[in-house]
Amino acid sequence: MPAYAVFEPPARANRPLLDHAARFVFLRDRFSWGAFLLGPFWMIWRRLWLVLVVYIVVIAAIEYGLRRFAVPATARTIVYLLVALLVGIEAPGLRRWTLLRRGWRERGVVVADDLEMAERRFFDAWSRERSLGPPPPPPPPRGPVSSAGVIGLFPEPGGGR
Questions:
Q1: Is residue 105 a part of any domain in this protein?
Q2: To which H or E segment does residue 12 belong?
Q3: Separation between Cα atoms, residue 155 and residue 148, nearest integer Å
Q4: Structural domain includes residue 59
């Protein structure tokens, strides 16, 4: 069953809760064909500017190294296919890193058959959590606490053996 990481955008002043909830992002953890086939264009589409700059620098360094050592064309093609494969595999991680760098918060992971079910499960739990408020404090311990005995497996600090 697919897993979706849920990201909450930074809070904006005077924004209704419904508008804030509509900006949540659900990232499915899977291979991205768009990132594999059209890496730089996928990065531009997703507004991953820093990732795009690093990608261009890495590709330029690889190209320089391959030309410097006169690597044959078939080996160069294999190297570029492996880089594209890596981008396709790491696409959700690159988006996750960019969102976290922009101030978004990871709110959890939802396991569901599709995006609609993931949204339904997450917002159901999220709305229940918001309506209940913070959890109550833990109850105080019952009865007197003895300082001479052993609690659990460890003796009192500084006590004899």
A1: yes
A2: none
A3: 9
A4: yes
In 3D space, the residue among 5, 6, 35 whose CA is nearest the CA of residue 23 turns out to be: 6
Q: With left for phi above 0 and alpha for psi between -120 and 50, is residue 59 left, alpha or beta?
A: alpha
Q: Is the pTM of this model over 0.85?
A: no
Residue 151: partners with Cβ closer than 8 Å, 6 or more residues away: 145
Who contacts 85 (Cβ-Cβ below 8 Å, separation ≥6)?
36
Residues 24-81 pLDDT 10s: 899 998 999 999 999 999 999 999 999 999 999 999 999 999 999 999 999 999 999 9
Half-sphere exposure of 137 (CA within 13 A, CB side): 3
Specify which residues 105 forms β-bridges with: 8
Distance of CA 22 to the CA centre of its chain: 18
* 20 — pLDDT class (breaks 50, 70, 90): confident
The reply to whether 76 falls in a domain is yes
